[in-house]
Amino acid sequence: MLAFQPLFAQRPIPQVNSGANQGPRQGRQLADPEEEDAEGRRTLLDDSTKQVYGPKTTLYFFEKAIKRNNLKLYEQDTLLDNFHNYDPVAKSGWKYQDLGNIGSAAKPMYYSVPEVIGVTSGFHAYDLYFRDPSKRKFFDTKSPFTEMSAFFGGGNRNMLDVAFARNVNPRWNIGLDFNTLRIRKTLNPAQRDDHMTVQNAYGLHTNYRSENGRYWLLAAFSRMKHVVNEIGGIIPPEVDPNSLYFTYEDAKVWLQNTRARDLRQDFHLYHEYKLGNGLQFYHVFDRKNQNLVVESLLDTPDALFFNSNRFNNPDTTQNKNDFEEWRNEFGLKGTFKGFYYNSFMKLRNGRMESPFFPNKRSAFNEFYIGGELIGKISEKWEVSADGEYLIPGNFKIHGIFISPWLDVEYTKALYKPTSMQQIYYGNHFQWENNFSDIGVDQVRGSIKVDLENLRLRPSLTLNRVNNYIYFGEDQLVAQASGEAFMIMPGFAANFRLGKKFRLDAEVIFTQVSGEAADQFRIPKWYGNTRFYFDSPLFNENVFVQLGVDVRYKSSFFAEAYNPSYQQFYLQNTFNVYGYPVADIFLDFRINRTRVLFKYNHLNAGMMSNEGYFVTPDYTGYRSFLDLGITWYLFD
């Protein structure tokens, strides 16, 4: 691939009008141009000083900025920072708990306030792998643009991403993307292509603005079919003396004939019209569908993994659930004397359906009113407040204060239980509940210290959660009767040591107290550190980062996973002990092509324990090499 790299070079073109694709709009700006130049990016010129197509002519933006009348355009990312952490869990800084493989069920390690205060499906195990069309990139390109990424993980764990976008005319852009996962089992694969995860996903998107600039439309569609061949974890040695934990491909696992499928389709539309100076009308439409199936053959040894209940079928488990939602939001917004304002009303309708429900479906209708106010006092000072009220009783209030030295964020919410928590009729578990709403108060603050070669971010997060809903040791859903309080001081730092070395570090301490403290399983200590060489070489023709990542979570009784209903649940018998994991990496960029080499679990065999766990009965990665490449085409 590197040998053919010169074939992808961009041909010189005549000088184009830099404003041809950019109609006038308040707040339109290129995001962080000085920061990009500081990392070594340069405008690409041909021999006659005519600008050619490249990262600086292919820009993207987000819907949130359009909605807030503060459009920022971003160049394509050619930076190397964290490039070697290519899979979703690693990208998060390892702040998710998964089952030790790409594409497996995952949950956030820390409690977070839900974005939606109304009813959701409750099946969130594969949210991490779905590309939400409302949060996607929209493009403004001067030439056809293609992004291709291929990642070849050790043990035949492969990912492929392809994206394309082009302007039909200066005011209309269209694009598409395709993503696939083929992830072989790390535990007990029967053959080379015995995949744990198979995903096929694609998306379509477009954005259009009228010639007079009064009308703007953004539309996107995403579809994901995510299939997981469940393994149920390693059979504990106390159950089977012939089963061992750290034999990886030779491990004895519970399940061989159980499969989960999560099929999602999401159509999203945002459009706005400028009625007059400082006043705009907008409309948001969403149509979402999530279809879930868990299948297991109970006339095989898989039956030993599940409990004795057989509510629907004695020979086969087919847990089917289908969640559908329609959302319409209508609002007025505008900007007046530096302040952005917005008021809206929103209607959400939906239903959860299953062939085993007594009435086949459970429907909901929700009506919201809300608004937002943002005041940008200067480039470094900003205050904002937003909120919504779900009639008759749920609400969410959110505020942010930004200054040159301190950021503070406050959220107070009362949100509904999920549909799955209220009603579920599977083959092994069934329930109908009438849980109370969940309340939360959250305060987050961060102090900003920026020196010449040092960037510090001390932080503090305070949470109060009451009526929390969880899955207990009996694997049934329950609601806590009391409150839980979380104190989470943290510290993030970026050091530049000399001209060619850098150290990035983050540490979080968590203390949970209160009557419901035991319902939250969070490691007391979390740490993630990266030390690396960072410098251009060969007259700045090659940019290189070479270093080591070390991550650590202290011992805790992590939640276990039940594949029959795709939820994590509490357990008090398996201690996921603290274990530092070191990865060595080499990232480099030649022109617009980035390449990574990553050796996982460098310290395997050097510790007192043979390996580490990420979830009870699920071991983390053994040592193997990953390879990845990403390149852009602008012609």
TrEMBL record:
Residues 15-24 have a biased composition (Polar residues). It comes from the Bacteria. It holds the Pfam family Porin_10. Residues 13-47 are annotated as: Disordered. This is Putative beta-barrel porin.
